[in-house]
């Protein structure tokens, strides 16, 4: 299975990673070799096998829906590249 | 004396501290001096000397007051993947440039509460993706070991390569690593130390930068099996903030080490005798088996038929989970944000931030993950891999059901390799380093790597023991008996 330049561009787009046109051949090539490596999984008889969702059999725990900790706005914002007046600032979204 | 204190093991230091032979401050200073002299190894990404000395002074007070917590006053290093309050944490990535956590991970909190002294943060492969600690924004760590009569720099393995180098070179008494596909056990083997990946759910993942959540586990990297038991006993336990952490109280691992392994049934899996395996690796494996037999274990040939599918399964599941976990690095809430030009919008900001902030291996895996999860490929890749993962786990379950107590395998397919060898080759070649370790993560089992002997190049080779789920106690007992019989007492010659 080989990955076309278009597939590589799509994967990069889905991953929200900017790639230039000159990088596409290398990326397509690397993704292809990784997917070829995964091809052997097609040999396995998986009829009737349940997909694993939890490696240790345990029910997902539930707890009461209540605030346990909170009120740390300053701490939460302290690592933001751009925070103003208690908000995370981002480039304009609405045209 | 104080110059040599850093060479002690955790259990030796524990005794010395209790006898007042030296103080935690002296012990800590000895480690800080060793770290200072070892900058060439690039094991530490951040040294927190002030915090260390403050905690050492506190520990000395606790010890004077009769505190006998096992880790009280013991200097440790922490992989850069653990969030540590007010101490920079970057997961060795540019995208977390400048990130200073405002909270402490559960596992490091437990160490801190037990009185352990954090010396600083340890280098790793970016987001724990890699097997050589070369994919790091801090640059590569070097293995303290060198080949005989050679000064070629070798990799300590990865991703917990800084942790491995630091313990091996006596810069700290013990270190924390994380293991998603072998990232504790492989670097431990390549540097001649002990490393254990506990059963999935044994340690809380809260506050650890997530890579692949269904596979990640934290664990100790130490100078002896007993030390690994001491550290794991301190960090294990349930945490309501991690819904996958188990409510189990059977964490008295140190007392499980009794030295008697008579009657234990050890499985030797034929599928692990892989093509192209160096003769020396095969030999060390046979020697390990022979020793176990000598000291009273029963050996049985076993079959784990889906072993050959473990790596492809892992390289579907881990990137898929990573692509989801790493979606949070968007340049908005923390870390690095790329500059954008006039007229560019928020999508440009996301895409440029991630293009400039992630290194090549991380980008590769995030793109693979996005691809295998995308419409039209989800069933063919991700869903199928989850089913094969079930089969891999069933292989182990059947063997354990048949009465096997533990499984012996080589830890790695080779000894330490030169810096540059992995980054320059095809990514698949690096992935093959995890061939003996990755099954253990996929099945959620505990696995321990212990040093066995030196190869002809004078480099350490390790053996791996895989245990039944939740039976770390029995695994430590077995590993300790094997360790005693192997008598691996080699240390790297100091050249740094």
Summarize the structure.
The complex is a heterodimer of chains A (95) and B (496). With 95 residues, chain A is mainly alpha-helical. Chain A contains three helices and two strands; from the N terminus they run αααββ.
Commentary on this structure:
The complex is a heterodimer of chains A (95) and B (496). With 95 residues, chain A is mainly alpha-helical. Chain A has 3 helices and 2 strands. Chain A has a domain at 5-42. In chain A, 32% of the residues lie in helices and 4% in strands. In chain A, helix 1 (5-14) packs across helix 2. Chain B is α/β, with parallel strands linked by helices and 496 residues long. An 11-stranded mixed beta sheet of chain B has the order 1-3-2-4-6-5-10-11-9-7-8, sandwiched between helices. At the A-B interface, helix 1 and helix 2 of A face helix 9, helix 10, helix 11, helix 12 and helix 13 of B.
Give the mean pLDDT of chain B: 96
Structural class of chain B: alpha/beta
Strand order within the widest sheet of chain B? 1-3-2-4-6-5-10-11-9-7-8
**Secondary-structure element order of chain A, N to C:** HHHEE
Backbone CA Rg of chain A: 22 Å
Principal-axes geometry of chain B comes out as globular
Query: Distance between the terminal alpha carbons of chain A, to the nearest Å?
Result: 41 Å
Structural shape of chain A: flat
How is the largest sheet of chain A built, in terms of strand order? 1-2
Instruction: Find the CATH superfamily of the largest domain in chain B.
Output: Amidase signature (AS) domain
Largest interface: A-B, 51 and 73 residues
* Quaternary structure of the protein: heterodimer
Number of helices of chain A: 3
CATH level-two architecture of the largest domain in chain B: Alpha-Beta Complex
- What would CATH call the class of the largest domain in chain B? Alpha Beta
Q: Taking all residues together, what is the mean pLDDT of chain A?
A: 91
Q: Give the strand tally of chain B.
A: 11
Q: Give the count of structural domains of chain B.
A: 2
What is the total tally of β strands of chain A?
2
- The helix/strand order of chain B is HHEHEHEHEHEEHEHEHHHHEHHEEH
């Amino acid at each position: 299975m080989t990955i076309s330049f278009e597939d590589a561009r799509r994967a990069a787009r889905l991953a929200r990673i900017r790639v230039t046109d000159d990088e596409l051949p290398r990326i397509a090539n690397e993704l292809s070799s990784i997917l070829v490596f995964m091809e052997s999984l097609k040999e396995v008889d998986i009829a009737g096998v349940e997909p694993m969702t939890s490696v240790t059999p345990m029910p997902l725990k539930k707890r009461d829906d209540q605030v346990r900790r909170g009120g740390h706005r300053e701490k939460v914002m302290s690592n933001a590249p751009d925070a103003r007046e208690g908000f995370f600032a981002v480039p304009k979204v609405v045209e | 004396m104080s110059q040599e204190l850093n060479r002690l093991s955790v259990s030796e230091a524990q005794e010395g501290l209790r006898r007042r032979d030296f103080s935690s401050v002296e012990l800590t200073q000895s480690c800080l001096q060793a770290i200072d002299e070892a900058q060439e190894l690039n094991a530490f990404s951040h040294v927190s000397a002030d915090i260390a000395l403050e905690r050492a002074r506190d520990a000395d007070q606790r010890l004077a007051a009769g505190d006998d917590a096992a880790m009280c006053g013991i200097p440790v290093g922490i992989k850069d993947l653990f969030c540590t309050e007010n101490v920079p944490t970057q997961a060795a990535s540019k995208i977390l440039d400048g990130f200073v956590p405002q909270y402490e991970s559960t596992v490091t909190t437990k160490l801190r509460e037990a009185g352990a002294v954090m010396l600083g943060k340890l280098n790793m492969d970016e987001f724990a993706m890699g097997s050589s600690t070369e994919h790091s924004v801090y640059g590569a760590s070097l293995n303290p070991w060198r080949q005989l009569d050679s000064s070629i720099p070798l990799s300590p393995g990865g991703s917990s390569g800084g942790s491995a180098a630091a313990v091996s070179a006596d810069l700290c008494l013990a270190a924390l690593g994380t293991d998603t596909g072998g990232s504790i056990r492989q670097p431990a083997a390549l540097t001649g130390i002990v490393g254990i990946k506990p059963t999935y759910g044994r340690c809380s993942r809260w506050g650890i930068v997530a890579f692949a959540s269904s596979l990640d586990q934290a664990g100790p990297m130490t100078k002896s099996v007993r030390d690994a038991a001491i550290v794991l006993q301190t960090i294990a336990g349930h945490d309501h903030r991690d819904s996958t952490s188990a409510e189990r109280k059977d964490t008295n691992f140190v007392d499980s080490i009794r030295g008697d392994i008579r009657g234990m049934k050890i499985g030797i899996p034929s599928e692990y005798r892989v093509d192209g395996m160096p003769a020396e690796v095969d030999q060390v494996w046979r020697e390990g088996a022979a020793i176990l037999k000598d000291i009273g274990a029963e050996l049985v040939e076993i079959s784990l038929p889906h072993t050959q599918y473990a790596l492809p399964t892992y390289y579907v599941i881990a990137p898929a989970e990573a692509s989801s976990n790493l979606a949070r690095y968007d340049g908005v809430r923390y870390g690095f944000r790329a500059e954008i030009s006039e007229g560019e919008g928020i999508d440009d900001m996301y895409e440029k931030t991630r293009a400039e902030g992630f290194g090549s291996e991380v980008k590769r895996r995030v793109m693979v993950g996005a691809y295998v999860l995308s419409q039209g490929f989800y069933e063919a890749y991700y869903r199928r891999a989850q089913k094969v993962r079930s089969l891999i786990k069933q292989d182990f379950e059947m063997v354990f059901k048949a009465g096997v107590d533990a499984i012996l395998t080589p830890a790695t397919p080779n000894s330490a390799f030169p810096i540059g060898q992995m980054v320059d080759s095809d990514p698949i070649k690096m992935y093959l380093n995890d061939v003996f370790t990755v099954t253990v993560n996929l099945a959620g089992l505990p696995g321990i790597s212990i040093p066995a002997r030196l190869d002809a190049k004078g480099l350490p080779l390790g053996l791996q023991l895989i245990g039944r789920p939740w039976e770390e106690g029995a695994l430590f007992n077995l590993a300790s008996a094997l360790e005693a019989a192997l008598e691996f007492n080699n240390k790297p010659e100091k050249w740094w």
